[in-house]
Structure prediction request, 155 residues.
Amino acid sequence: MRLSDDRTRMELLQWVCPRCGTNNVVGANFCRQCGQLLAVRCLHCGQEEYIGSRFCTNCGRPLQGAPPLVEKPARVVLPAGKPRTSSWAIASLILALLGLGPVAVICGHIALSEIGRGTAGGQWLAVLGLVLGYLQSAFLLFGALMYLLRLVGLA
Ligand SMILES: [Zn+2]
Ligand SMILES: [Zn+2]
Prediction:
C-alpha cells in the first residue's frame, strides 16, 4: 500500500491504522481497534518503525522487505457451513435403540456439551437419544426396584 507523503508524515506522528484509520500511539505493535500490524523492525539497525514508513528514521536505510515486528496473531479458522453431526449424538441414539439406556444417556450428554461449544451439530439426535435413554434407565431402575422388593418379600 502506497501512502502519499502528507499522509505518511501525519501517520508517523500518530501511527494511523492503514486498515481502519484508528489513531494509535507511536510504537504500538498492533491497532487497538482491529488488530492490524503497525510496526516493522529495520533489517539494518533493529529500530522499530511504522509499517507505512519507507525509510528507517534511525539509520536512513530503506525499510522495504523488513519483517513484521511481531507475528500476526493466528486466525481462528471457523468451519464453513453447517458443523458435522456429533458422533456422540449418533452413538447415543443407536445405543438407546439397542436398549442400552444408561450408556445412551452418557453419550447424549457428551454430545450436548460438544454441540453447546459449537464444534458439532445434530442436537435433535442427541436429545432423542437422551430421552429414550432416560426412559429406559427409568424402566430399568423401576424393574430393579421391583425385583429387590420381591426379593425381600414386600411385593
Ligand atoms: Zn485498525
Ligand atoms: Zn535502521
Observations:
- The first helix runs from residue 5 to 14.
- Helices lie at 5-14, 87-97, 101-116, 123-151.
